[in-house]
């Protein structure tokens, strides 16, 4: 009887600990405008945006096996669509962000049709080429500043709130909503029938097809969904910068290489992995960003070290030894 009671209480304790950890983290982040300085607040905004980018890339690569090195295409499209809607369409900041995400998702449909004609490494390189095509195309649009880019009028940013402090607070809560929504969206998907199918694809695509999963349609749907949410985060990132250029918007280093590093060291195919990876990435950047090329070499060395330790990443290593799960998605029969 004692052994039975102990076995039954363990999941309850784990669930309680998860609620306590997640609730505490959300409370700290939600109250950040009241305790953090301006520099810390802007750093948190960027970190929350990168968290959203990492969750989307992880959903795409970690569960459907679509390793894209061209997600910067959707960051750039989201940023440019947001600027166009806000400047030329006279649309408010938040509606323009949302519409830019939907617009990018629509653009991702024909983009995906082209990319899905390729497989494996060819798909990865193809997404990079597509992103470059978008970069070159946007650079030819003189209304958007051409190759030199365009700045967001200060009046548009000021429309969020009157004072500077209030404006920073509103922008922070937009970033907080984007980061939190990305985690909840992935968690909700993985707990749904889509999640069961995606987990089956991750474990064995051939086996998933034999039990009736339409793997191509599911992968395409995830591709379009992640494109839209990536664009939402991209639009916000350039709202924060107040300026966008083709090179910055479609940068493979800033929006794909760093995101890939975050997911790989944190744990591919887990919800917790991108969270851990984002924390470590920004902590490393704060310490070593001024080291020049040594900083990039250090990042590479850390990624290699983590992969040698456990290819499942830091959270995968922790979960395998402890059984912890902050976002449980398993179903027990």
What this model shows, in words?
This protein is mainly alpha-helical and 333 residues long. The radius of gyration is 21 Å and the shape is globular. Residues 1-13 have low confidence and may be disordered. The chain has a domain at 18-250. The longest helix has 29 residues, at 2-30. The chain has helices spanning 2-30, 32-35, 38-64, 72-87, 93-115, 120-138, 154-158, 164-190, 193-203, 205-210, 215-241, 246-249, 252-266, 272-288, 293-309, 313-322; strands spanning 150-151, 243-244.
Helix percentage range: over 70%
Return the string of H and E elements.
HHHHHHEHHHHHEHHHHH
Shape: globular
Contiguous helical run count: 16
What does the radius of gyration come to?
Answer: 21 Å
Measured by DSSP, the beta-strand proportion falls in: under 5%
Enumerate the spans where pLDDT stays under 50 for 5 or more consecutive residues.
1-13
How confident is the prediction overall: mean pLDDT? 90
Strand order within the widest beta sheet: 1-2
The biggest beta sheet reads: 2 strands, antiparallel
The number of distinct β-strands equals 2
Structural class: mainly alpha
**Distance separating the two termini:** 22 Å
What are the key terms here?
single chain; 2 strands; globular; 1% strand; 333 residues; 77% helix; two-stranded antiparallel sheet; mainly alpha; disordered N terminus
Outline:
This protein has 333 residues and is mainly α. Helices cover 77% and strands 1% of the residues. The protein has helices at residues 2-30, 32-35, 38-64, 72-87, 93-115, 120-138, 154-158, 164-190, 193-203, 205-210, 215-241, 246-249, 252-266, 272-288, 293-309, 313-322, and strands at 150-151, 243-244.
